[in-house]
Design a protein that fits this description.
By secondary structure, the chain is an alpha+beta fold. The chain has helices at 15-22, 30-48, 135-150, 160-166, and strands at residues 2-6, 55-61, 64-66, 69-73, 79-88, 94-96, 100-104, 107-112, 118-124.
Length: 176
């Protein structure tokens, strides 16, 4: 089970940048635009299967046993750091355990020894600030906010431009 513990108060693109992009001079629709920035960010994160600006996640899983070790694939990347890995004891207490992180394609894997379920707390995102988000993703966000602003009737179809900008960053599940 994946749980969002903490989110960043800043978005990958700002209201000022969006207003400049849309060539808007008034403050009349600032609330609407802020909502569209959040909506576009959520859409892009879901489409990519990634976190754009640092968020703290917790995953609780039994993991997959490989050669006596447990492996848990972290579902949201890119990984900034693993804060802790803990065994979930039968009495619902937690104990810290040692772990290593290995990369497997675009999803990091946490490896540890445990016969019990574990709780992993980690930070994911391209960084802590909007400047850390790759420029093509930011441009896709501007295009998506513009589309949502101009099509307020609820019609949502991600444009080819947005998809083209995002596809190099999209997580693709690879089975081997």
């Amino acid at each position: 089970m994946l749980l969002l513990l903490e989110t960043n108060a800043i978005e990958p693109i700002s209201l000022t940048e969006v207003k400049s992009h849309l060539r808007l001079d008034t403050d009349d629709e600032d609330d609407l635009l802020n909502g569209l920035i959040v909506a576009a960010t959520n859409l892009v994160e879901e489409y990519l299967g990634k976190t754009l600006i640092k968020k703290t996640w917790r995953i609780e899983e039994p993991g997959d046993n490989v050669n006596g070790l447990q492996e848990v694939v972290l579902p949201r990347g890119p990984l900034l750091k693993v804060l802790m890995v803990q065994r979930v004891m039968p009495n619902e207490t937690y104990t810290n355990i040692r772990f290593v992180v290995k990369n497997h394609f675009s999803r990091p894997i946490v490896v540890f020894k445990s016969e019990l379920p574990v709780s992993i707390v980690y930070e994911a995102g391209y960084g802590y600030y909007p400047k850390d988000v790759p420029a093509p993703i930011r441009h896709a966000l501007f295009a998506l906010v513009a589309h949502l602003y101009e099509n307020r009737n609820g019609q949502l179809k991600m444009s080819e431009l947005v998809k083209t900008l995002l596809i190099p960053y999209k997580h693709v599940q690879v089975y081997v």
